[in-house]
Structure formats: C-alpha cells, structure tokens
Specification:
mainly alpha; 11 helices
C-alpha cells in the first residue's frame, strides 16, 4: 500500500510552493530558524481536519453543497488578504509571522494552522488523492487512509522544516538590511494577496 509511487507523488505535491511553504519561508526569513519549525508544525497540523474529513467522507459535502464550499473558501481568502494587508502596512518585516517576543511560538503555530484549515481544496485533494493508493480489496479503508495521510503529513513537516531552515540562513542579512527586509516583506504581502484572490475565484473541482 505504501508504494514508491505514493511516496514520490506525495513528495512532488509537498514540494510545490503554496501558502504553507510561503508562510514557513517568510517566518524563517523574518523571525528565525526556530520559529520556522513552529510555522511548519502549524501548517502540518492544519492538514488534520482535512484528512479526517476526507477519511470520514465529509469532504463530499464540498462537492454537493455550494454554500459550504463558498463559506470556507471566502473565509480562507479573507484570512490570506488579512495577512497581506498586515504585512504591507507594517513598517517592520516581523509582521509576517508576528514578533516571537510578543506573539510567541504558539501564535506562529496558530497562523500556520489557520492557513491550511481554511483551504477547502485540501479536503477535496485528499478525497481524490488518497483513494488512488488504497488496495482494491482493502476492508480497512478508514485506517489505511489515515495511515497514508499520516505519512503525507510527516513528509510535509520534513519538507517545510527544510524550507524554513534554509530560509533562516538568510535571516541575519534580512534583519540587518532594512531595505532588503521591506522589499521582501512587500513581495510576500503581494504573494499572499495573489493567493487569497486565487482562492476566492476558485470553483469546486
């Protein structure tokens, strides 16, 4: 069941830059390596609701209920736009993930969690992705889906931590250079805004 095809496909999916990668990299750049690990943890924990919804068949609601999909979609888009606005208006780059001295690592985890839990496409992705790797004769669909989902989460955590640590290597330079930090901050703000608008315009697949 845990085939090489599943591992390679999952790795490709995890490596593709998205909101979670963007958030983790931004945290590594502006707050530091340790904070990026907490950001990666938060994004990974945000996968759990989507995984459970898919494994229990609840994700099918998004296919049949336009209202449910729209509500979650617009909530996620609004949160992304809020992060973009927060970064753009701030005079300090630490706004991207919150100053670890005031927000704390718990706040960094919470933001990463919200980024994924407010993405309705995630549960639909699991519903379409995981069943492809289940044995046709399997009688333990729920446990098998949870196992595959757990492996996917571990890969996500590992890759995101790697992204965060690599970006954290440049943290000292970014913090010391006010011009570079402002330019990169604006870039991240624009990226979050673009992702928010993309999510808002997303239709059910």
């Amino acid at each position: 069941m845990i085939s090489l095809e599943f591992l390679l496909t999952s790795l490709v999916v995890v490596l593709i830059p998205g909101t979670g990668v963007l958030y983790t990299v931004a945290t590594g750049l502006f707050v530091g390596k340790r904070a990026s690990v907490f950001a990666a943890l938060g994004c990974t924990l945000g996968i759990i609701p989507a995984l459970l919804a898919s494994a229990l068949g609840l994700a099918a609601i998004f296919h049949t209920s336009a209202l449910a999909f729209q509500l979650v979609k617009y909530a996620g888009a609004a949160y992304l736009l809020y992060l973009a606005w927060q970064m753009w208006r701030s005079s300090t780059p630490l706004a991207v993930a919150g100053d670890k001295q005031t927000t704390g690592y718990g706040g960094i985890v919470a933001k990463g969690f919200l980024l994924n839990i407010l993405n309705p496409k995630l549960s639909i992705f699991f519903l379409a992705f995981l069943p492809q790797f289940l044995p046709a004769s399997s009688s333990a669909v729920l446990s098998n889906m949870l196992l595959l989902g757990g492996i996917f989460m571990l890969m996500t955590l590992g890759v995101f931590i790697l992204y965060g640590l690599l970006s954290g290597c440049f943290s000292a330079f970014i913090v010391k250079s006010q011009r570079a930090s402002v330019i990169i901050q604006k870039g991240f703000a624009g990226s979050f805004a673009a992702l928010g608008l993309k999510l808002a315009l997303t239709e059910r697949g």
